[in-house]
Design brief:
Layout (H helix, E strand, L loop, with lengths): L1 H18 L1 E5 L5 E8 L3 E7 L2 E8 L4 E10 L3 E2 L3 H7 L12 E12 L2 E10 L2 E16 L5 E12 L18 E15 L1
Antiparallel strand pairs: 1-4, 1-11, 2-3, 2-11, 3-6, 4-5, 5-7, 7-8, 8-9, 9-10, 10-11
Length: 192
């Protein structure tokens, strides 16, 4: 009986993968961003300029079969060169020693044009599970007849979980940089 169950599971999985198509990220229409509270009063936003991803997406079920990404930590850009230099230093990303952060999806639960993506996020060699909300999934054919998919990923992490611990206490209470970091990623990808 266990043998039949395993074969049935394998067939269901292979049928699901057969309907999925591979997509390449369109870097000119994708943004890998973040937001963090500064001095307890405002949000500072930034992005990473260099990244790649492996995406297998099933248009019929609007679900992801594979999603993994590599982000170059040295490509961080907040619009302030001095701050970016600090972010790639050992106080934060230690980009010379840890040039990449990665995300690997472990499961996906579809809910129409939305869903939950669970996976492992690795920063500074430390891997922790995270949950990303997937929103606004849409697919179209572009002007050249290529299939495209677009979606947003949103989540939160505690940066100290990844040894990003630099901070300074404020004179009247609070800290210079919040521990919570919001992840905000907008993806457009083209079917291979």
């Amino acid at each position: 009986m266990k043998f039949i169950t395993k074969i049935t599971s394998a067939l269901i999985l292979s049928v699901g993968l057969a309907n999925a198509a591979s997509y390449s990220v369109d870097n000119s229409h994708t943004n890998v961003g973040f937001s963090v509270k500064h001095m307890m009063i405002t949000n500072v936003k930034g992005e990473f300029k260099t990244y790649d991803a492996q995406i297998d997406f099933d248009e019929a079920t609007k679900s992801f079969k594979t999603f993994s990404a590599n982000v170059n930590t040295g490509s961080v850009d907040t619009g302030i060169e001095k701050r970016d230099d600090h972010l790639i230093s050992d106080d934060f990303f230690a980009s010379e020693k840890f040039p990449k952060m990665t995300f690997v999806m472990k499961s996906y639960q579809a809910d129409g044009n939305e869903g939950k993506m669970k996976g492992d996020l690795t920063i500074r060699g430390i891997t922790k599970p995270v949950v990303l909300e997937v929103e606004d999934i849409a697919s179209i054919k572009d002007f050249q007849g290529n299939k495209r998919v677009g979606f947003s990923l949103k989540g939160k992490i505690n940066r100290t979980d990844y040894d990003l611990k630099w901070n300074k206490a404020l004179e009247l209470g609070g800290v210079a940089v919040s521990e919570e970091v919001k992840i905000i990623v907008d993806v457009e990808a083209v079917q291979k």
